[in-house]
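$ ./design --mode recover --in tokens.txt
reading tokens...
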């Protein structure tokens, strides 16, 4: 009997202790929930949906430095998207070099990798090949409707790397594929205008004359169920199939030259409304001595002279280029430029430097952003910041 009473007492005490622990754990959980609610309140005393309205009118740089909750808020879907610098970067420091996608947050001044693109099919892109040591293999990307679009590249077997464009949406932080190209290609013309992406000329699995003269368009602004590539007017020859060419969307037309720099070149203009090719104005062609871009906000076209590093804007009324920046060491040899929100960003120094030009300031200001260590920039774009869900 005494043994049974002892065992019963022990069991009773164990049950009571367990119950106390459960109550204590509930109190801790309740306390943590209350603390979390307090921390998640952006403005004490106001519901968050009203706090969103109050804070959305403030600059992100002000909110970033106040507290963690406000910092998280500026990367949420509730805060108006501010713009960041996106870059295709080539990783040179690893045993197996690779291409990566990054975003430079102008508020935190930090590089952040984009989410990994879909792995099926795997993305196989090369920048260099042992058979062509001095040759840089192009990887071509454009932006349209606030999206980053990877359009063309080359595999290590010298085949087109993409049968469908790969698209990144910063506002959802997700990748997705576009419709299959009519003719997958590389070393081609790529450009965008009015929410549509254009691909022309280039080389497929092998050189074909009809592909080298062809042009196709994908209107990304349409509903996904209506996505497709459609044929447009062919060019008269395949002169643009020898290099990767950036077509610049300017005043309803796509403008392009077949070679950068001051060497003898040929230009062409595609009228997207009339669906016809035109001759490039003489003044535009004569001053197109490097990478060019258009700031869609003010419909101005810019070019950087690869030889002396000067930057000019195009005057369509007088068909001439007007100098904005005199010769700059930072901009010499610029390979790719992008414009938006009063900034022109250029890949320079063989990809080791990204130069930012504030074209709204007087005098014009420039500064440099270095890619992450062990990486070289291929191309830069200006897009809304990524949303953290």
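writing sequence...
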């Amino acid at each position: 009997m005494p043994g049974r009473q002892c065992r019963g007492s022990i069991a009773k005490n164990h049950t009571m202790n367990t119950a106390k622990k459960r109550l204590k754990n509930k109190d801790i959980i309740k306390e943590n929930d209350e603390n979390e609610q307090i921390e998640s309140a952006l403005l004490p005393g106001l519901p968050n949906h009203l706090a969103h309205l109050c804070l959305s009118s403030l600059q992100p740089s002000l909110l970033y430095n106040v507290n963690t909750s406000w910092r998280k808020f500026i990367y949420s879907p509730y805060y108006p998207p501010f713009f960041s610098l996106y870059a295709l970067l080539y990783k040179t420091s690893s045993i197996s070099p690779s291409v990566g996608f990054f975003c430079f947050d102008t508020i935190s001044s930090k590089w952040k990798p984009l989410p990994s693109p879909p792995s099926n099919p795997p993305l196989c892109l090369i920048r260099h090949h042992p058979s062509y040591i001095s040759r840089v293999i192009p990887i071509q990307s454009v932006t349209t409707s606030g999206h980053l679009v990877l359009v063309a590249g080359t595999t290590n077997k010298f085949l087109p790397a993409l049968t469908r464009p790969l698209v990144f949406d910063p506002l959802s932080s997700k990748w997705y594929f576009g419709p299959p190209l009519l003719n997958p290609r590389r070393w081609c013309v790529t450009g965008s205008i009015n929410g549509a992406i254009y691909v022309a000329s280039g080389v497929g699995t092998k050189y074909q004359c009809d592909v080298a003269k062809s042009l196709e368009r994908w209107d990304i602004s349409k509903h996904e169920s209506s996505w497709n590539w459609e044929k447009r007017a062919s060019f008269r020859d395949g002169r643009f199939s020898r290099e990767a060419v950036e077509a610049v969307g300017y005043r309803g037309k796509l403008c392009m030259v077949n070679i950068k720099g001051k060497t003898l070149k040929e230009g062409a203009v595609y009228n997207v409304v009339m669906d016809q090719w035109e001759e490039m104005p003489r003044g535009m062609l004569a001053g197109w001595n490097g990478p060019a871009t258009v700031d869609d906000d003010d419909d101005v076209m810019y070019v950087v002279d690869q030889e002396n590093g000067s930057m000019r804007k195009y005057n369509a009324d007088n068909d001439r280029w007007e100098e904005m920046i005199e010769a700059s060491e930072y901009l010499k040899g610029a390979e790719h430029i992008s414009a938006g929100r009063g900034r022109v960003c250029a890949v320079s120094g063989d990809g080791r430097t990204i130069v930012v030009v504030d074209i709204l300031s007087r005098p014009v200001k420039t500064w440099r952003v270095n890619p992450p260590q062990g990486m070289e920039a291929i191309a830069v774009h200006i897009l809304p910041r990524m949303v953290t869900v």
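exit 0
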